[in-house]
Every structure is written in C-alpha cells, then in structure tokens.
Write a structure and sequence with these properties.
globular; 8 strands; 8-stranded mixed sheet; 5 helices; Aminopeptidase
Length: about 190
C-alpha cells in the first residue's frame, strides 16, 4: 500500500480526508471551464455534493486498496488545494499502474503536474515495485502530453474513442514508462 503522505521540495501529496471538501470544491469550481473539455466528471453543473461523493469514494478506495487519490498542495500554502493525482492498478499480474492528474487553472505552467507525477512514480516504482506505469491523455491536451514527455514516457499510440465526454467520444494517447527506463533516466539525471 502506498504511503498516505508524499513530499517534494515544493509539494505535499496527501490522501483525502473529509476536511478537504471545501478546498477541493474551490479548486474544481475555479477550473471547470478548462477541466470540462478533458474530464467526464467535470460537468459545468458540478456541485458540492459531487465533491463530498468523490471524497467518500476516495476514502473507501484506499480502504479497499483499489485506488489511491492524493490532494496536491504546496509546502508554502498547505491549506490550498491545487490539484489531484491518483493511481490505480491496471494489472496485478503485469504490475501495471495508471496515473491520472489535474491542476487548477491558476497553477498551470509551473511544473506542478510534472513534479507530482514524478513523486508518484518514485512511490510506484521504488516503494511498491510496479513494472510499468501508463497515462491515458485526451488527444489535444498538449499540457498533459508535455508532462509525459518531460518524464520520459513513450507514446505508444492512440486509443480510439476511449472516453465519452459531453456526448462526444474522445481519442486518448497511451503513454507508458517501464521501471528500468525510470531508473535509467533518474541515474542519468544524478550524474549529469
């Protein structure tokens, strides 16, 4: 099981509690116009009840060890929610996990997603022993593609009509990173 708190020099990733409802709801509402185009749950009629339901489901998923959602916050402002990052097992036998993430609109282009995904990669590969991590990114979501590229993921191809969003089937790029690629890239970064 992953640790409930992960930290970087700048970020704090922590599992959700019921106390996070107000700050999470604020982050979602401030970013709905942008999130709406990429994520099926980010409807323009999103309500605080949806936030409460997400947190209840997140707490239950941790208990059942089927998904692990983290709130992303900064060390400087630990009470301000700036995004979510989650991972779940795609294949126990293949030791494959998938990561999903979003950052509130007023925090984009600051490397938050890259740093948060990198922290979660360390947990999945080093602490939990996964072999492969995948990302499914809606075609056209260039910012998320850049995160994958920066972290050394390989774009494997396009999953056609992968997800129904606002009545439209949306293609998704499939990206993957193997444990040996992760370790090799990190070794290269420390010797550079």
């Amino acid at each position: 099981m992953p640790r409930p708190l992960l930290e970087t020099n700048r970020l704090v990733l922590q599992r959700f509690t019921r106390k996070d409802s107000t700050t999470l709801d604020d982050a979602i509402r401030s970013s709905l116009p942008e999130l709406n185009q990429w994520l099926p749950w980010a409807r323009m009629d999103y309500t605080p009840s949806d936030t409460h339901a997400f947190i209840r489901e997140s707490i239950q998923a941790w208990k059942e060890e089927r998904a692990w959602d983290y709130s992303i916050r900064t060390q400087e402002e630990p009470r301000r929610h700036i995004g979510n990052i989650s991972f779940w097992t795609v294949s126990k036998l293949g030791k494959i996990a998938e990561i999903g993430y979003w950052v509130r609109s007023d925090e984009t282009k600051r490397g938050v997603c890259t740093e948060a995904v990198n922290a979660l990669l360390a947990e999945t590969f080093n602490s939990l022993g996964y072999h492969k991590v995948v990302l499914r990114i809606a075609v056209g979501n260039d910012a998320s593609d850049r995160v994958a590229e920066k972290l050394g993921f390989t774009r494997e191809g396009v999953l056609r009509e992968e997800l129904l969003i606002r009545g439209n089937w949306v293609d998704h790029s499939l990206w993957s990173l193997l444990d040996r690629e992760y370790r090799s890239a990190r070794r290269g970064a420390t010797t550079a």
